[in-house]
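Action item from last week, closing it out:
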Amino acid sequence: MINLRPLFKADYDFLRRCLEQRFQTARNPLKKAAVALRSALKFPERGRFWLIERDSEPVGYAWVRHSWRGTETAQLTDLYGIRDLTDRRIVTAELVSYYRSLGNAIWVDGRQQPQLLNAQSSSKLSPGNPDLHRTEP
């Protein structure tokens, strides 16, 4: 089963390795990965990494960037580590549901997502969930 959750400090090494693989075709992949991770952790108001798990094992991440255009807007910038279309739809639906519940617009593939995609949701993403704001498991 695919699950999506916020990143904990214990997940930083896994995320760093994913980012290094993601940026391996860049001119300086280690530097690009370090900058992406450092900026995301230093400025969480600009975006958030979400850990993607399958059967409680980390398999990838989703990176949602935030911006202000009269209202807070979120954009799914990167979805890494899952290739299965159904799993990608589940993760996308989870994120759309979460950000819509906050009253934010969310953009996926350059299009605003006004409603949920047709996919089964399995995680417990909700603004009131205290686990979303913890940094330790």
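Closing note: Strands lie at 2-6, 47-54, 57-68, 72-80, 105-108, 111-112.
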